[in-house]
Write a structure and sequence with these properties.
29% helix, 9-stranded antiparallel sheet, single chain, 28% strand, globular, alpha/beta, 17 strands, 8-stranded mixed sheet
């Protein structure tokens, strides 16, 4: 959940077209509660009309196509039906002034020429030469027939070292877990290796240098890739085979739980903002937190989340499928017909999306796997996280471990940290790229200290 923002929050916003010579790049700022998003529009001519793409650098999104564009010399209209997005504006020769509508919400959005965006600094990115070994490696998941490419870092001195496997969150990620200019796994690997802990990080299947297909894979498939990494590390002479663990972020934290339930020889797991609730519950909480932060009325937020919860329940039970009509959905879910048109369309888009990953995610409940864990657990969340609710997920994890009689665990909530564990103002997704810090130094120290303690 990273990163890969689950539903509404992606706010893939419009593109614009104009008259006269409107080709080139345009930029605008979308205000969302206490924060906002920079939007860049790139326009080119095609025949008698125009084509356009959008970049949302604050969300790490580039090249998003506009599906429908109309322009009469002054008025501009753009639509991206697959996300329920509409933009209308007026071009005055120098700027475009208008508004966007998505999922029932209408917000002002104006554009002026030029990109007007400078990528923030990333001061925590390590710079070579490094005081440790760094090797390019490949290992195989035989069951899936994929070869995973990664980077293995370890201390220079001789000895048997503890090791940790880094597992990314949702969406195709490279070995550095790169997102919006941040490379958190590069920063984490550097910090841990400097503290005497070997680290293996790898490109997701079908991403960068790893083979296979990402699309169509589920959390269970990614868990098997992580266990293939575990098997590889056990073959390394420099690694203590009983001191190999998994650290996962977001979906990766959930995958760490899945792996620990299936591999009794795993030495430990670290969950950074992992979802410990059934997937549909995580998504409903996520939507509630984000819509509230955007300043949506409380009654609309509650109505939307109630209907969304009902929608997921019907999908899980098999009562609703991608071929359902609005009339069928309305007959089954109380309150659906009373939602604004844009919101209803967004929910129908969710229903009509065929995605094996999402289908698996909303059904998977980690509770049984949590109860089967027999290794030490460190679970961390930021209190300002709007993607994975800190209190709800950590309390469920702790309660489940307690019932199972498992005492070797630590949970921690950090005030003022977001989903990426950055020191933030609001926790809003749009802050991620603007914050120069990649991950809180306190979190880095706590992870390193905990791993050294449990592998002492």
């Amino acid at each position: 959940m990273k990163k890969t923002l689950f539903l509404l929050p992606a706010l893939i916003i419009p593109i614009l077209l104009g008259a006269q010579d409107i080709t080139g790049s345009w930029h605008g700022h979308l205000s969302l509660g206490g924060s906002g998003l920079t939007i860049i529009i790139n326009i080119a001519t095609e025949g008698d009309g125009y084509t356009a793409t959008m970049d949302s650098p604050d969300q790490g999104a580039t090249g998003i196509p506009v599906e429908t564009v109309t322009f009469d010399g002054k008025e501009i209209s753009l639509a991206i039906p697959r996300i329920g997005f509409i933009y209308t504006g007026s071009y005055d020769g120098t700027a475009v002034k208008g508004s966007m509508t998505q999922s029932g919400a209408t917000l002002p959005l104006n554009f002026t020429r030029g990109e007007a965006y400078t990528a923030p600094a990333r001061p925590q990115d390590p710079v070579p030469p490094y005081p440790y070994r760094s090797d390019e490696v490949r290992f195989r998941n035989d069951e899936a027939g994929v070869i995973l490419a990664g980077t293995f870092t370890m201390p220079q001195e001789k000895g048997l070292f503890p090791a940790v496997i880094l597992v990314t969150g949702s969406g195709p990620q490279d070995r550095n877990d790169e997102l919006m200019g941040h490379r958190p796994f590069l920063v984490i690997a550097d910090h841990l290796t400097r503290n005497g802990i070997a680290v293996l990080r790898y490109d997701d299947r079908g991403t960068a240098q790893s083979t296979g297909l990402f699309r169509g894979a589920t959390s269970e498939d990614f868990m098997k890739d992580a266990l293939a990494a575990f098997g590889y590390l056990k073959t390394r002479d420099e690694i203590a085979p009983d001191k190999i663990g998994i650290l996962g972020h977001s979906e990766g934290g959930t995958i760490a739980v899945m792996a620990a339930a299936r591999e009794p020889e795993l030495g430990f797991i670290v969950s950074l903002a992992g979802s410990m609730l059934r997937g549909d519950s995580t998504l409903v909480l996520q939507n509630r937190d984000i819509l509230t932060s955007y300043g949506e009325p409380a009654d609309l937020v509650e109505s939307y989340c109630t209907v969304l919860s009902g929608l997921y329940s019907r999908i899980i039970s098999g009562e609703l499928t991608g071929v359902s009509t609005e009339e069928e959905v309305s007959a089954l879910i109380t309150g659906f017909d009373r939602l604004p048109e844009g919101v209803r369309q967004n929910l129908m888009n969710i229903l009509g999306t065929e995605d094996p990953w999402m289908d698996y995610f909303i059904r998977y409940d980690p509770t049984a796997d949590i109860a089967r864990i027999n290794c030490p657990v460190f679970a961390l969340n930021g209190r300002s996280d709007q993607q994975v609710h800190a209190e709800a997920n950590l309390s469920h994890l702790a309660a489940t471990l307690d019932r199972a009689g498992h005492t070797a665990y630590t949970t921690r909530i950090y005030d003022g940290l977001n989903h990426l564990f950055q020191e933030c103002e609001t926790g809003d997704i749009s802050e991620y790229s603007r914050i120069e810090q990649t991950i809180s130094p306190q979190v880095l120290d706590d992870i390193a200290g905990w791993i050294k303690e449990v592998t002492r």
